[in-house]
């Protein structure tokens, strides 16, 4: 962690801070060339109906395997992609890649499957975002009503007027909107009501807390209620064990995603996983 030290009213950059800045610049160059060389790829995490464990869709998650074989997580490189503006091109590539995968899945018989794609606020704010989305849908032939975009709650709080209009434009393309990491921000009820969103994703931290203290489930419970009152779909993310799934079910949470059901998978592994699910259900 970088620390600045304050002495007699002056700020000094500590040595570790210089190292961190250099490291960021280095990573930015590596990311740019890695993206061009095809080092980025997507993993797909199944999303299921909690009552039946039946899959209905997947979330596309970005992965980076560097030239020397190291895996770098999106939590580390997305901020750098945002900061450098690279996220605009990377985000378009992610969207096209995920939509093409959706088309392949449909061709393979998974006709009701939905694809969820994360969108960064830098990407979303870009003036051509909606045009880019429309073209990606057209070029890939992906059906808009089986596509969902995930925006974060913190982003949903900024620039309300602009956001309301942009979300309306996105909705007109036919894709739906989920608010990711819900519960970590401070969206007011009235604000939420003005946004044309379709689904709330309960942040993993609140799913983790659910089995802890008696009050541990209160935020998850509140989000589920909120979804019900506003007529929004609700999905719990990061469900890791049966106890969590059980409590979520008893709270009336309809949908879930997490290691309990499946880790993020390669396209081939996803197809195989979906095939196995069908067999399990038939048995
Ligand atoms: P997110 O959208 O909230 O995605 C959920 C994260 O939780 C993913 O981490 C997923 O692998 C992880 N996860 C899922 N189930 C479980 C579980 O049961 N337990 C635990 N411990 N973790 C679980 P990942 O793939 O590392 O992604 C981290 C974040 O990076 C994402 O959070 C999202 O904000 C961002 N991200 C990923 N792909 C993209 C992308 O294509 N574009 C943008 N803008 N952001 C992305
Ligand atoms: Mg997400
Ligand atoms: Mg999330
Ligand atoms: Mg998250």
From TrEMBL:
It comes from the Bacteria. Residues 24-278 form the EAL domain. This is EAL domain-containing protein. It comes from Massilia agri. The chain holds residues 486 to 768 of 768 of the full protein.
